Amino acid sequence: MSSIDRKTRHKEALRTGILQAARNIALKEGWQAVTIRKIADEVEYTPPIVYEFFENKEAVFFEVAMDGFTILRSMLEAEVIEDKHKKLCRYAIIHWHFAEQNPELYKLMFGIESIPSIAAERPQEVLSIGELIKNAMKAITPDLEDKEYKELFFQWMCIVHGFITMALIMRHRIEKEPDAWEPELYLERATRRFIKSIQ
Amino acid sequence: MSSIDRKTRHKEALRTGILQAARNIALKEGWQAVTIRKIADEVEYTPPIVYEFFENKEAVFFEVAMDGFTILRSMLEAEVIEDKHKKLCRYAIIHWHFAEQNPELYKLMFGIESIPSIAAERPQEVLSIGELIKNAMKAITPDLEDKEYKELFFQWMCIVHGFITMALIMRHRIEKEPDAWEPELYLERATRRFIKSIQ
DNA sequence: TAAAAAAATCTACCTTTGTTAGATTTTTTA
DNA sequence: TAAAAAATCTAACAAAGGTAGATTTTTTTA
């Protein structure tokens, strides 16, 4: 019986190893450089092993992105903020921190410079983040219709994701330039403005 | 002498034909489906002909994107708006119209779902659009430092590009859903809010 | 106008990559 | 310990970016 356990454990480890390998390579060289052969090499197997666990390369990417949404959600959930007016603002900053610390992962999740946006598929992971944000909005402005919260969520995402996209696109340029730039400050002002406008 | 003209004319036509072919294929199947062989096929030559005009595939994409910025700029410049407070708002809408009418081109220009953002390279075409926007801002809020206009431009781009990115990402989803959605209205409200905040 | 030079274009190949069929090795079962 | 099952690999395919060198076409020159 324990040999069966060992086997399933090993399979599980191999599976996560594949995902980890994909992340590692992307971190160093970007998603376009992630190949099945490199992944196999990193887990010390031959290429076909990847297809034992995933239908194709896209499925590997999809799962990596999915894990990304889970991480992002748990980061958002971990924040306990009493002040309901500061909550949304704080969420925006956390969102930004996540993107800053995992730029490649973020790009994969939202289809920047890589493959079509996985966020667009709207699986459960994505929807539940949406609920989190909408709840924060309900605290500020109660008694709106569901449709209206949807619109507000969309607008909020425009601001936050727009900021992150621009920041990631311009990152290396900006770093080289003399003028200091305070990304968090920009984002904070923008979200404050938004919160003020809806309350 | 006229045979030399005919030849240069033909070369010029072939060059633009290659660019056009790339656009055509992307329009139908997306940028990831654009191959050198397909381009060559469309212009009725063999693959190596592409390399007579462009260093590699990326160079073809780059030039297509560059033309996109030229088109966008001329669309912005074509608008003559007296009311300086409405100008920025109108610019945002034109920007959106451009993205809506040329979604694939826009994605290429800003690195959505495709290759790294060409906008990040900041060639002249991109910079001159920036100047256009900054001038509109100067009309509303004069006497700021250059650095401050830079920040405002960045913020404005976050709003507009964030909106477009989200709209393009969510497009097919949204179209399927029952609730009507008024993209232009959302964008207009967001930019109005911004303009109000800077004046 | 015919040979030589230059220009335009192609054929045939290389390498990398995603992917798969079928063989081989290893492990488990009876 | 032999047969069955599972795990894994070898060897190949096709499609793609890219290029060297051959071939065809056009132009030049004597």
Automatic annotation (TrEMBL), chains A, B:
Question: From the Swiss-Prot or TrEMBL record, what is one GO molecular function term?
Answer: DNA binding
Q: Where is the HTH tetR-type domain?
A: 12-72
Annotated keywords = DNA-binding, Transcription, Transcription regulation
- The feature table lists the DNA-binding region at 35-54
**Gene3D superfamilies associated with the record:** Tetracycline Repressor, domain 2
What would be one Pfam family of this protein?
TetR_C_33
Q: Which InterPro entries match?
A: Homeodomain-like_sf, HTH-type_Tx_Regulator, HTH_TetR, MT1864/Rv1816-like_C, Tet_transcr_reg_TetR-rel_C_sf
Q: What is this protein called?
A: TetR/AcrR family transcriptional regulator
